[in-house]
Design brief:
Blueprint: H1 3-16, H2 18-21, H3 30-39, H4 63-66, H5 71-81, E1 88-93, E2 97-104, E3 107-115, H6 119-133, E4 136-137, E5 148-151, E6 155-160, E7 163-168, E8 175-176, E9 181-182, H7 183-200
Length: 201
């Protein structure tokens, strides 16, 4: 793995994390949740977002999982790639896995969160997923003290508490946006912003 790539990703990610620390749009956007629910024919109101996985029926994911589709996450994608406006997104929740798909001109970014019964199962799940993706362990400070894995193809996996975050930018070009960010660095940067939001909230 390119050491400079990871360090650069960490630096940019840390800069973007200030939004969560300041409490700006870290929780899922109620307006966006309502729009998404309507698009999927869901009958639940937007206030249902934020229940735990054990309480949530399909269509109402845990708040932490839904952060991958939050206004702040979309804002960070916009900043990193230098987009003129936030990208359109589409999400799904099957009671265990929440997935958010970002429709970008350069390709599709997918961030998903799998909710496990407890932390040990999540760590094992992350390791199993990383093997299937040929992702290698992230070493040193770049793993943020968590089980983390990264593949040059544009995949990043982290386990935190009872959740596994998977960021997939593999359909994007080698370098994207006006800043020419590599897909691997982009995936890592987005993963760190989500992890920081989880820590803050």
């Amino acid at each position: 793995m390119n050491k400079q790539l990871t360090i650069t990703g960490l630096a940019v990610g840390v800069l973007l994390l200030g939004g969560c620390a300041a409490g700006t749009a870290a929780a899922p956007s109620v307006q966006f949740a309502a729009q998404s629910a309507a698009a999927h024919g869901a009958t639940q109101g937007p206030t249902a977002v934020g229940k735990s996985a054990s309480e949530s029926p399909a269509g109402t994911p845990p708040q932490a999982a839904a952060m991958v589709c939050s206004a702040e996450a979309r804002g960070n994608v916009t900043k990193i790639l230098g987009l003129a406006s936030p990208p359109k997104t589409d999400w799904s929740w099957n009671g265990t896995v929440y997935a958010c798909h970002y429709a970008l001109e350069a390709g599709t970014l997918t961030m998903s969160v799998q909710v496990f019964p407890e932390a040990t199962a999540a760590r094992e799940g992350a390791a199993t997923l990383s093997t299937s993706l040929d992702a290698k362990p992230i070493q040193g400070l770049s793993n943020l003290g968590l089980p983390g894995y990264q593949a040059e193809a544009g995949t990043v996996v982290f386990a935190k508490d009872n959740m596994v975050l998977h960021v997939d930018a593999t359909t994007m070009p080698a370098a994207a946006g006006i800043n020419h960010v590599t897909r691997s660095a982009f995936a890592y940067q987005m993963a760190t912003t989500i992890l920081a939001c989880w820590s803050e909230h």
